[in-house]
UniProtKB/TrEMBL annotation, chains A, B:
InterPro entries: Homeodomain-like_sf, HTH_TetR, Tet_transcr_reg_TetR-rel_C_sf. It comes from the Bacteria. Keywords: DNA-binding, Transcription, Transcription regulation. Pfam families: TetR_N (PF00440). Residues 42-61 bind DNA. Residues 19-79 form the HTH tetR-type domain. PANTHER family: HTH-TYPE TRANSCRIPTIONAL REPRESSOR NEMR, TRANSCRIPTIONAL REGULATORY PROTEIN. PROSITE patterns: HTH_TETR_2. It comes from Phycicoccus avicenniae. This is TetR/AcrR family transcriptional regulator. GO terms for molecular function: DNA binding.
Length: 208, 208
């Protein structure tokens, strides 16, 4: 899993400094979106937070779209640092529901994810490769998780791990869109937990 | 369920003519998007197909966004004419998978749906009310369908019809996004069928 240390490891000083600066900007963007929402959060607010001009901000990324993609990549990095995909299957799924709960508390990043993800269904969009790779990686990992659940006797006979992985990612993505359309009228993490547990022979472990 | 006849019923001639003209435009838009995709399909191509100027086209709807929303509303009308929500639960779910298969053959409308649906998570977007109402209506109907499935003994003990409805809509929506990201690398109707059947005690009836 990619961590900040991997990205800078072995590089010389100025490069490392640039990487750190980029991470500061992305973390500031995540904070701004978390507090005021993606649509309320302007680049200006992000720039102010790190003491730069908007132009300086864009200089680091080339375009607003690229800054936004990198913001989501950074969110994944932070999330994945807390996720242990090598844990037993039931524990990984429990952690995923925890991630969904954390995301709900920073709703602006969900808005950003939903909008950018839809725009990136255009193969020419600058975020297209990010979403394709992210989806493939998540499906691979979740397929391994459901394989493990099968070995532990948690799956009904004939259940296909790859199909369960696809269904889990789809449920999560779809719930986010519905949750925004319906004005957050249901508990998203609970709905994800229900969607996952409905395919298992036993309930997941409870929250931490 | 709303049908073309409901919309024009009882109105006088010129109004009825306008309604018919709007439907012609929307059907032309659906055809253009089906054949060349949403991003490849220009308003110009739609206008050409109905023998109008682009300005004339927009005159009927006020803006491109409104034309696009009405195109999706028209697709729902056409779809719902083939769907019988009062049929036995297993049959309704089978019909839903058929609709997904039909949509896949007109992929441009899926692209349009995914993009507009994400943009409409902004409560100020002109399509926000359409997607909220559509989602609420679909959830109500599917909850009734799963209620019926429960009565027929198709659901595991303790399964909640409203939660199953939410999961079904989420799975469908999410699969569409993944399907576009992954370059149509899996069979969407099969994946939807698997997602639905995984929650039932028996397999759905086969295709027609």
């Amino acid at each position: 899993m990619s961590t900040p240390a991997d990205t800078t490891g072995g590089r010389r000083g100025p490069y490392r400094k640039t990487v750190r600066r980029r991470q500061e900007i992305l973390d500031a963007a995540l904070e701004v979106f978390a507090v005021v929402g993606y649509r309320g959060g302007s680049l200006r607010a992000v720039a102010d937070r790190v003491g730069m001009s908007e132009a300086g901000l864009l200089h680091h990324f080339g375009s607003k779209d690229r800054l936004l993609v990198e913001t989501l990549r950074r969110r994944d990095e932070v999330t994945e640092a807390d996720l242990d995909f090598s844990a037993p299957g039931p524990e990984v799924l429990r952690q995923l529901v925890e991630v969904a709960a954390r995301n709900v508390r920073a709703q602006g990043a969900i808005e950003l994810f939903v909008v950018l993800s839809a725009e990136a269904t255009d193969p020419d969009h600058p975020a297209a490769a990010f979403f394709r790779d992210r989806c493939e990686r998540l499906l691979d990992r979740l397929t391994a998780v459901y394989d493990d659940l099968g070995d532990r006797g948690w799956l009904p006979e004939g259940a296909d791990p790859a199909s369960l992985a696809l269904g889990t990612v789809a449920t999560w993505d779809g719930l986010q869109v519905q949750w925004l359309h319906l004005g957050r009228a249901f508990d998203l993490p609970d709905a994800l937990r229900a969607g996952i547990e409905g395919r298992l022979l036993r309930p997941l472990p409870g929250p931490d």
